[in-house]
């Protein structure tokens, strides 16, 4: 069981047309997104329905909703709405979305699970492990976009993923994440037996040892002049402030130790004036 600090690219996406952003074919970036969902204002509360704004990864097309006139430090300049389209072969390949926070559960299934030597420790996380997805800022801070609590997992590879995962994930997830990585690896002549592990996130309604997955967010208000900066997390001996890539696994002795760190993460997010997003509506295929 681990409490993982996972660093992924943190730059903000730019629109590539007046409409918004087409499906990304370049290195991963974050978007500041608006989507209906549910959120908590306190750990002991109940989720409420609201249009939410939050930082996340969504590489398929997105509609540009707003340009913020005077963003503060680390605040977003743009607000997008996710819009899903069916996957199709492309040159260069369309990027996958990982982690995926939309729909009934969060999913994480690809990033940093393999390197040149083979499968990494990220394919061996136990149930109850927690992954903090975020980015390094100025080699002095770690900023958070997603907290993923591992509830379960399914192992898969490129030759069996359609059969193994068809009853596990919604059809949209195949278009957003699985088909893009399968196509990219095919055209790069990578082996179809390369393994991956699909992790299923614990939810508010089905927590693991009292823990659930969430993303820092706020309810959307039309009158707001700007968005919000991703929350900074600090925890000596657990979070490394100056990492810009890679991951820190932090093995834990048991669920009590993991939960204590998860509760501290919740506290830090709430104290920075943010909410816990526990659900974002799944973008549907047209």
3D architecture notes:
This protein has 286 residues and is of the alpha+beta class. 14% of the residues lie in helices and 32% in strands. The protein is built from 3 helices and 16 strands. It has helices spanning 161-165, 171-187, 255-271, and strands at 3-7, 20-21, 31-40, 48-56, 62-67, 78-82, 107-108, 114-115, 118-119, 130-137, 141-157, 195-201, 215-219, 232-233, 246-248, 275-280. The chain starts with a strand and ends in a 6-residue tail after the last strand. The mean pLDDT is 95.
| Spatial shape | globular
* Main β sheet profile: 7 strands, mixed
Please tell me the overall pLDDT: 95
Tell me the helix content: 10-25%
- State the end-to-end CA separation: 40 Å
β-strand percent reads: 25-35%
SSE ordering: EEEEEEEEEEEHHEEEEHE
Low-confidence stretches: none
Radius of gyration: 18 Å
What class would the helix/strand composition place it in?
A: alpha+beta
Number of strands: 16
Count of discrete alpha- or pi-helical segments spanning 4 or more residues: 3
Q: Domains counted in the coordinates: how many?
A: 1
């Amino acid at each position: 069981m681990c409490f993982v600090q996972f660093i992924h690219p943190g730059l903000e996406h730019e629109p590539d047309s007046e409409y918004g952003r087409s499906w990304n074919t370049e290195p991963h970036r974050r978007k500041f997104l608006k989507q209906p969902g549910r959120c908590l204002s306190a750990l002991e509360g109940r989720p409420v329905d609201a249009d939410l704004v939050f930082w996340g990864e969504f590489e398929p097309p997105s509609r540009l909703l707003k340009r913020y006139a005077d963003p503060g430090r680390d605040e977003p300049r743009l607000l997008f709405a996710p819009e899903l389209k069916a996957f199709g072969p492309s040159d260069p390949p369309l990027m996958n979305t990982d982690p995926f926070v939309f729909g009934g559960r969060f999913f994480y299934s690809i990033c940093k699970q393999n390197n040149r030597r083979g499968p990494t420790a990220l394919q061996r996380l136990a149930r109850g492990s927690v992954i903090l997805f975020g980015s390094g800022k100025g080699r002095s801070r770690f900023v958070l976009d997603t907290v993923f609590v591992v509830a379960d997992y399914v192992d898969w590879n490129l030759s069996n993923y359609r059969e193994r995962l068809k009853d596990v994930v919604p059809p949209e997830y195949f278009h957003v994440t699985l088909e893009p990585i399968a196509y990219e690896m095919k055209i790069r002549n990578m082996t179809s037996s390369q393994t991956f592990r699909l992790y299923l996130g614990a939810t508010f309604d089905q927590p693991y040892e009292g823990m659930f997955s969430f993303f820092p967010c706020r309810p959307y208000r039309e009158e707001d002049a700007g968005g919000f900066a991703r929350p900074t997390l600090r925890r000596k001996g657990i979070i490394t402030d100056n990492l810009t890539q890679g991951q820190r696994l932090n093995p834990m002795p048991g669920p009590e130790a993991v939960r204590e760190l998860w509760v501290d993460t919740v506290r830090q997010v709430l104290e920075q004036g943010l909410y816990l997003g526990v659900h974002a509506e799944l973008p549907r295929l047209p």
